[in-house]
Amino acid sequence: MRQVLLANPRGFCAGVDRAIDIVEQALKKHGAPIYIRHEVVHNRYVVEDLKSKGAIFVERLREVPEGSIVIFSAHGVAKTVWKKADDLNLTVYDATCPLVTKVHKEVIRKQNQNTQVVLIGHTGHPEVEGTLGQSIDGKEVLLVEDEKDIAKIDLKDGQKISYTTQTTLSVDDTQQIVTELKKHFPDIDSPKKDDICYATQNRQDAVKQIINQAEVLIVLGSKNSSNSNRLKEIAEKNHVDAYLIDHYSELKDEWLENKETIGVTAGASAPEILVQEVIEYLKSLGISKVTEVTGAKEDVYFPPPKELRN
Hints:
12 strands; 310 residues; alpha/beta; Cobalt-precorrin-4 Transmethylase, domain 1; 4-stranded parallel sheet; Rossmann fold; 3 domains
């Protein structure tokens, strides 16, 4: 009998829930339009839904009329963006995930201790840009994407060094880079806690659990979602075909042909409704058995800013 294995946990994390809640509460309080710098979370469905409610998404604050309401996305922003918002007399609600804010504070703390900070992450990702933008004047956070970048690090004599990470990277990939960093710099300081967020870790663990049986993995998430892409990559590295889609209509028959066990999951910025639409579509193909695989329990809650609490 053909079956579906449904990864658990999957979908929205506490940081995404909080970011979307901030936008919706701001719309209730102030009315439309509300401006949002960058996609509040990386999911096409969420962005289009918020647009329909009166949110306007921009990439630069110069696109926001002076004195308007603006929300910073869950990925965080550089210090210069905060200054620009102040110059434009904007009312700001900060939807930065608290776990990203934790990384920002760590960068500032280490730089105040005259430590060279290394950030493991992907060039151009908004979270990375925001973290790099926490640098204290005259100091630089060095971005490391792979082992090749480590050889370029040139420390002054006696200078301390520490590393931190983009929160949505693959645990396995990050560990490889950390191992290389420690080979080059045995005294490098590690974060007090793992900077890869709990939700990223849990969703990756859930995928590893189901791909032991699944012959194909369907990941609900947008192409620009880092954590969703990592889920797809985990399956592929374990020789399981995997596909990243925004909507069930993107499913192709050949992906599922002759596949007896189909795995389904969703990135941390993808809503559950998209998962259920995939399940209903698979049922329409005659797949009746759906098994929700037991995984880590999540009860994390990040409250919105006090100005927006009901």
